[in-house]
Design goal:
Blueprint: E1 2-9, H1 15-26, E2 29-32, H2 33-41, H3 52-66, E3 71-76, E4 91-92, E5 96-103
Parallel strand pairs: 1-3, 1-5, 2-3
Antiparallel strand pairs: 4-5
């Protein structure tokens, strides 16, 4: 069964370290939002890509979930930003289980 695991949180809380480690252990597809958006930042007005990065990463994850693969997404979530609604929350996706993991720095809840 495919699984979608989403690591989300503020910069610097350990998302990338944990997501890469788990992807390696599970031999899962690893998708990092920062890597996906990097080539487009230069073209965006004021670095504002809106939620296009989230939409793209959700499509890439969906393609891999349909193939029966486990997918791990590493995505920054800012407190002032809208929730990335394109990435499924807890429960099941069309192709498997979804497991969101919210990363927080100690003392920041």
């Amino acid at each position: 069964m495919s699984r979608l695991i989403v690591f989300a949180g503020l910069p610097g809380v350990g998302k990338t370290t944990q997501a890469r480690s788990l992807a390696d252990a599970l031999r899962a597809v690893y998708l990092r939002l920062d890597t996906l958006e990097a080539p487009f930042i230069r073209m965006a007005n004021n670095n504002d890509l809106k939620d296009y990065g989230y939409q793209a990463i959700a499509h890439l994850a969906g393609d891999n979930l349909e193939l029966g693969r486990t997918v791990i997404i590493d995505a920054v979530s800012q407190p002032h930003a809208p929730h990335p609604g394109h990435i499924p929350g807890p429960g099941r996706t069309a192709s498997g289980e979804a497991h969101p993991i919210r990363m927080c720095a100690p003392g920041r809840g």
